[in-house]
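User: Please predict structures.

Assistant: First:
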Amino acid sequence: MAKIVAVTGNEAVAHALKQINPDVCAAYPITPATELMQRFSAFVSNGQVKTELILVESEHSAMSACVGAAAAGGRVATATSSQGLALMWEILFIASGLRLPIVMPVVNRSLSAPLNIHCDHADAMGARDSGWIQLWSENAQEAYDNTIQAFRIAENMDIRLPAIICYDGFIIGHSIGCIEYLDDETVSNFVGEYQPLYPLLDIKKPISYGPLILPDYYMEYKKAQDEAASKVANVVLGVAREFEKISGRSYGLFETYRLDDADIGLVILNSAAGTSKDVVDEFRDKGIKAGLFKPRLFRPFPYEQVGESLKHLKAICVLDRADAFGGSYGPLFLEIATSLYPFSDKPVLINKIYGLGGRDYLPEHAQLALDELIDITKTQKVRTVKEYIGVRE
């Protein structure tokens, strides 16, 4: 039986991990992900899971322990945020390169300097090209659901890649919301028994992990990793269809909101999408055909499907909660622009940087972006492509 509860996002994701009952979890506390692992460690202490919880001295060590446990043949999970994810950077590439399906919730937080413990997306964007799958979540329900689905996606025998589940620090992680838990047996059956692939502990079939590969075979190895990534989108959709059968909740590679007949649209990730949907409704009430596009699968990015969904619009504002310093525009903007590049007739694109370091994203910011898009469609002129919004004068 499903159960309606009022919980924080961190509590919801910890509950999902309890229901999945991984073999090993190695973790190091960091705000705002600390509550997630603190709650999961209570499940371990109370004997509610059989997970071997490894307490380590850093996030670098946490991911290193996860790599060892996954290579040995275990179902493995961890969690982190911000500087913790950055400290794992070296090992992230090892986990994906060795095709180890580790699952890691990332409670999004800004990167230093200066020190800031609040939400933006710089941490996950910094890891976007590390070979990990990335699923993004608008609210606690999506974070819970994405965590359950991530194990099935990562562990698919055609994929075998690690996965990150992103949700906004404090805004989702520490805010209490009303969500629906699936029952333990349903989740356990959905995820299934873990099937290791080439485990180190299979002494009847000895193998080695991470051997030296020189120029003669390194490119072939990386091409195989790329081919696995190319299959992720279809697996995500297949897992989502099965998840809908047990939950009644539908997921895709992205969500569109009032977009089919829209002339102008916002593209935005995670919690700010909820605020933006309300503003889209207000503009619709005024007779303005506005819509919203919210990516879910950010890595590997589904360029073709995204482009097809957005190509009919006249103008789009991509809102980034991170900046790609030296890259001129925000990281999400660059992906949306790339997805639309093949089309000769495509929307005008502008980029807004918002909400860095936890700065509030307000309805007026969505209104500002939509008003500018209206002006662009009327005048065919762009005042500026990239702009920081919500900045003090």
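Second:
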Amino acid sequence: MATKIVIMTVFLAIMLSSLSLCFNASAFELSSDEAEAESYYLLNIENDLVMVEKNINESISPSSTVKMMTACIALESGIDSNTVITVKEEMLNGLSGRNMRLKKGDRLTFDDLLYATVCGGYNDAAQVLAFSVCGNIDEFILKMNDKAKELGMISTVYMNVTGINVPGMTTTVSDIAILAKYLAKSERYIEIGKKKSYKMSSLATCQFTIVSNRSSLLASYKGLSSFNTGGVGETCAVLYYDIGDLSFISIVMNAVANDPLDQANYAETFSKSLISHARYDYSVKTVFDVNSKVATVPVKYSVSYQEIDLYLKENLNLFLPEDIDPWLDLTYSVYIEGDEIKAPVEAGQTVGELTVSKDGKILAICPLTVDKSLSKNAFLYIMDAMKTFVMSRQFIIILLCFISLMVAFYIAKSRKLNKMHKRRKIKRKK
């Protein structure tokens, strides 16, 4: 029967630790001297760790984050980057808000429209992009909502391709995070969002020759990609931040300035706090290396060893808050099949798992191995097999049946002997 073996000796203190340090995103609330946000979210992608969050399931207007889905559908349409689109009058119907003043007859490439939508946040570019994919807006919006359902964005309803607020168009930060995680897998989307400025192609005939990225943070942070940045008054920002081996998704919605006269993008101002949290409040810590003994467990069928040490196959590095002590605040347990490791085993063979958790949440499950080979002693194996068989239910049933047969045979034999004895007595009397 499978059992769990709790790490002994030095890890006993770990298991008994009762420190109350909390490793919970909702327990940490960020603040900024310049701005506050109604809802925000910060995720470390590699560890799927939500580092901090606030009001992520409340229904809100998606605002310009709608353009993330618009670009997503366009990118997955398969249309070539250099395909030239000619602007038609119906493509510009009903437009309002931020526009690049496209007009009927303008020619742009598919990439021109993508960069103008993602980096520039231009509504007319987004609408022309949608027409170039589906031929009409309604069908494109259906694709947007179908994609949202496919991704599990259960609280999102899209009603246009630009993000202009209309009644009934809703989302949540949780849903925006789902879309952002999906787009983080697209190298092309990341590269588009990293562009500080984009020079329109030589084929473009519109008034604009340069599209500037709306994110002011690109100049300050290497590895930053603006998935979406709203303008003044839109107060939203979705950022992808790559720092070497770690990457993050930052979302800020409905931010407000502490100074009412401040005309900056408040969401970007608050995003600095999230980026700072990602850079300075967490780090990768080596909990175990390959040379550290994790546990000692009993060995079966080996003459040379009664116990064997277990090790990790590779270093265990965890992304943890700076104030977490891996030796005091984490819980470790070892799992192997049965109560013992059975010989034969080869050096390097996986024999179990190490589970690392904090407050009941599993942080890592790592394979455990042995550092030496153990051969099987045939005599011990046969003796144990015999012992196992003797103690088994089948053997007991066979033994009981045998005893019952022997008893029955003895009784029958005794009766037969008694009858023969009686006959001899009768003959003698005669």
